[in-house]
Amino acid sequence: MVQPYNKSKSKKSEVRAMFNNIARNYDFLNHFFSLGIDVIWRKRVIRELSKYNPNLILDMATGTGDLAITAAQKLKKQIIGVDLSSEMIAVGNKKIAKKNLSQLIQLQVGDAEVIEFNDSTFDAVMVAFGVRNFENLELGLREIQRVLGENKPLLVLEFSKPTIFPVKQFFHFYSFNLLPFIGRLVSKDPRAYTYLPESIMAFPSGDEFITVMKNCGFSESRQIPLSGRIATLYIGEKK
Ligand SMILES: C[S@@+](CC[C@H](N)C(=O)[O-])C[C@H]1O[C@@H](n2cnc3c(N)ncnc32)[C@H](O)[C@@H]1O
């Protein structure tokens, strides 16, 4: 299993520590490294989500809340954001207050693998760049399935592995060379930026991820490749 520090602690405690470390730089580095494309990807998630007309939405692994904020601005519905890292949540809460969205978005610390909500609570769940960091992917997806209402959607945005020339070559050079180099210069935690490409390579993508979703109780699962499959949006419905 690829984990941030490989210090024989659980992946979960290392992931929590890593995101607590990088929380203050996270937004800047996130947009910088993705060249701003993540904003377009998030809007696509919300466009697909809007087709289901959900009222109560869970943004699992919400981090600093960017996806929850985009959803609140576009859909004007109630969103609960949950994340392991209290520092990421603290940054998110400041942004939400600044944007006057506190009536719509509530953030709380919590774990995708043990979700503190009753069965069938939510009309939709979304996860952006979070599932790759779960310690136990299937446990997390099954918990998400449990708190979703019947036939309600899960939307997962995650990095995948581009296969076409020249996106594949560019992605490899960028993520294994340029990104760790810049990460070393500007981040408090350079390991975060070598963990990122390593964890992407080790994570199931495309049809493999669809199979995992099916195994965890999602039907009608489909995938939308984004930007030459640098990222993929997966959508499935609770059976
Ligand atoms: C790359 S960030 C993504 C944050 C945000 N969704 C975004 O799109 O910017 C991954 C987040 O997943 C969170 N995370 C990892 N494992 C988790 C778990 N088991 N339960 C809840 N959050 C988790 C981390 O704390 C981190 O904030």
What would you say about this model in short?
By secondary structure, the chain is an alpha/beta fold. The protein has helices at 11-33, 37-50, 66-75, 86-98, 137-147, 167-186, 192-202, 207-215; strands at residues 56-60, 78-83, 105-109, 124-128, 153-159, 218-226, 231-238. The chain has a single domain, classed as 3-Layer(aba) Sandwich (Rossmann fold).
Topology:
Blueprint: H1 11-33, H2 37-50, E1 56-60, H3 66-75, E2 78-83, H4 86-98, E3 105-109, E4 124-128, H5 137-147, E5 153-159, H6 167-186, H7 192-202, H8 207-215, E6 218-226, E7 231-238
Parallel strand pairs: 1-2, 1-4, 2-3, 4-5
Antiparallel strand pairs: 5-7, 6-7
Helix pairs in contact: 1-4, 2-3, 6-7
This protein binds S-adenosylmethionine (SAM).
S-adenosylmethionine binds next to helix 1, helix 3 and strand 2.
